[in-house]
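Inverse folding, one chain.
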């Protein structure tokens, strides 16, 4: 495709940026659009994966047929088969009428399966059959039905690891991944950060009828150096917040720092994705739990060591690489801990021996539900987890 084709797509779908990897992703989407090949779109949360299935659909022969977007992580496990494939009347307790599923409704069109990595294994088997033969069964029916649907899937999890951990079927992965499209995170698009900032600032100025905020030189440098773990969505939220709250229309570095979360990916340990013991972290929140757990473990070991030294059970000269004087009475000194973001505020008093990681997680879920007045969808978004995960946690901790 020509550069002009790519620019037209950007203009039509409101995509901002000139990053080479972004342009390549759009180019691949345009090239694969006229075919019926399955496409797997990968990228972190907040990078704009939802635009690409629309690009593919609108540039395909199916553009006049149905386009249905399904968030697989937002549908409870017990009803997802009914949502996707339909059900017969009386097939389960609440099945009072015959229902068509998305694959029947979208016949001849395109289905976008967002968060496809959240699909239960039983549903993955049904989806594989659709991909291989175009056949499916409604829940409670023995009659095979046919559908002609183009499937575009997206995920922000590593499906290769999910396959290794037996959480995702290998054969389904290869069926979906016929044409892979990777959307780069914002931290790899330095040339686009300021462009996006100006776009969002201009939109806010028009929406709220106020002058647009402008970053000074210090703020520009911070915008470019920050890792943006929430990607474009996080940048947009920050711009909107500063536009509405701050009276000063010139955004300084200090103003930006005040509105950025105090715990970000670059401030956590260097091995963000994989710990020394090989554990894989799927989210920043899991890393936070691990950091708290390690802090607690180190504090317990330190307290035991000091106790043993004072009681004489450990000779002072026997501790390597340290120089000790005679024991002195221990004094309580204030411990400085960095403040955490609004969605994960943990007072220093809560990080104590008696509080387990489960207690911390339960408390954070309760606070998120309270902040969002019990609305689980908003609470899940606040916690940056899928709705299905939140439902499971609510049931696990008895928060229903």
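Residues assigned per position:
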């Amino acid at each position: 495709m020509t550069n002009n084709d790519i620019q037209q797509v950007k203009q039509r779908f409101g995509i901002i940026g000139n990053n080479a990897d972004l342009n390549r992703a759009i180019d691949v989407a345009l090239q694969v659009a006229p075919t019926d090949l399955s496409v797997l779109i990968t990228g972190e949360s907040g990078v704009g994966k939802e635009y690409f299935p629309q690009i593919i659909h609108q540039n395909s022969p199916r553009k006049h047929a149905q386009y249905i977007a399904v968030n697989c992580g937002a549908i409870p496990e017990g009803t997802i088969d009914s949502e996707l494939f339909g059900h017969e009347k009386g097939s389960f307790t609440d099945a009072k009428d015959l229902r068509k599923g998305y694959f029947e409704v979208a016949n001849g069109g395109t289905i976008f399966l967002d968060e496809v990595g959240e699909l239960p294994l039983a549903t993955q088997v049904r989806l594989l059959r659709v991909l291989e033969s175009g056949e499916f069964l409604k829940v409670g029916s023995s009659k095979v039905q046919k559908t002609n649907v183009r499937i575009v899937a997206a995920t922000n999890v590593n499906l290769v690891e999910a396959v290794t951990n037996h959480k995702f079927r290998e054969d389904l992965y290869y069926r979906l991944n016929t044409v892979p499209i990777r959307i780069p995170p914002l931290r790899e698009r330095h040339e686009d950060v300021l462009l996006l900032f100006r776009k969002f600032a201009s939109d806010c100025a028009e929406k709220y009828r106020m002058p647009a905020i402008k970053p000074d030189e210090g703020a520009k440098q911070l915008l470019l150096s920050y890792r943006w773990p929430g990607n474009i969505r996080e940048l947009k939220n920050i711009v909107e917040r500063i536009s509405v709250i701050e009276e000063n229309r010139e955004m300084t570095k200090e103003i930006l720092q005040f509105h950025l979360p105090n715990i970000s990916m670059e401030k956590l340990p260097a091995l963000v994705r994989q710990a020394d013991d090989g554990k894989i972290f799927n989210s920043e929140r899991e890393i936070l739990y691990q950091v708290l757990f390690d802090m607690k473990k180190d504090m317990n070991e330190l307290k035991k060591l000091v106790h043993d030294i004072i009681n004489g059970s450990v000779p002072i000269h026997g501790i390597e690489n340290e120089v000790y004087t005679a024991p002195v009475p221990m004094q309580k000194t204030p411990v400085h801990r960095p403040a955490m973001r609004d969605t994960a505020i943990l007072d220093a008093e809560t990080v104590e021996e008696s509080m387990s990681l489960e207690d911390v997680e339960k408390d954070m879920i309760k606070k998120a539900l309270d902040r969002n007045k019990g609305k689980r969808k908003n609470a899940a978004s606040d916690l940056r987890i899928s709705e299905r995960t939140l439902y499971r946690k609510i049931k696990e901790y008895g928060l229903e």
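Confidence is low (pLDDT under 50) at residues 263-284, 317-354. The two ends are 52 Å apart (CA to CA).
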